[in-house]
């Protein structure tokens, strides 16, 4: 499969290494550090584009791909207010877009565990829920897209919680998210249910970027030949 990389930082290079290991060809690398362009013949030959950039650049990157009818796999977070426009491109113009706030297979299993625990906690009102997420200092959005997905998984399944907040003085219907930025941490997410007598924690800690990169390449393999809006639930058949 011919892959175009949009974003050629640490994650882009990790994705490239795994793509090559799996027998794919990287035909274009678009980044401020390269000279490749959306208008190059090499980019137009790509069967899938994998995009990991910055929130302010992501949406225009998607449009550049759609103009050339190239399916997109993206893990950039912090731009989701424009997701309805991407959905419209897929439904009305036949484009293909695979989005995940986190491509790690383990994290997506964690998402499902989180939803199931929230459903169970509907029956046990003595527990209050909160979250802590830790990322490297280069992480631009706060909270992380993964943390927001986890919070939505809770609020959609736990009736007493409606939304999330970064404010430590949270209301009863809010999930407090504590966001920490330090060192080179790839990503740690902890959900805590606290009662007067005990605590229940579920926790995911990434050891490196490799798990995210592998998931992105698997998503690209899955996306080739498909249409519409896709997610890790489709890939993993969750």
Give a brief description:
The chain contains eight helices and eleven strands.
Write out key terms for the chains shown.
single chain; 238 residues; alpha/beta; Rossmann fold; Dihydrodipicolinate Reductase, domain 2; five-stranded mixed β-sheet; 8 helices; elongated
Give the helices and strands, then pairings.
Blueprint (H helix, E strand, L loop, with lengths): L1 E5 L3 H12 L3 E6 L10 H4 L3 E4 L3 H13 L4 E3 L8 H11 L2 E4 L5 H17 L6 E8 L9 H11 L7 E3 L8 E8 L6 E7 L4 E7 L4 H14 L4 E3 L1 H5 L2
Parallel strand pairs: 1-2, 1-3, 3-4, 4-5, 5-11, 6-8, 7-8
Antiparallel strand pairs: 6-9, 9-10
Helix pairs in contact: 1-7, 5-6
Structure in words:
The protein has 238 residues and is α/β, with parallel strands linked by helices. The protein folds into 2 domains: 2-103 and 210-236, NAD(P)-binding Rossmann-like Domain (Rossmann fold); 105-205, Dihydrodipicolinate Reductase, domain 2, CATH 3.30.360. The chain is 37% helix and 24% strand. It is built from 8 helices and 11 strands. The protein has helices at residues 10-21, 41-44, 55-67, 83-93, 105-121, 145-155, 210-223, 232-236; strands spanning 2-6, 25-30, 48-51, 72-74, 96-99, 128-135, 163-165, 174-181, 188-194, 199-205, 228-230. The strands form 2 sheets. Strands 2-1-3-4-5-11 form a 6-stranded parallel sheet, sandwiched between helices. A hairpin with a 4-residue loop joins strand 9 (188-194) and strand 10 (199-205). The longest helix has 17 residues, at 105-121.
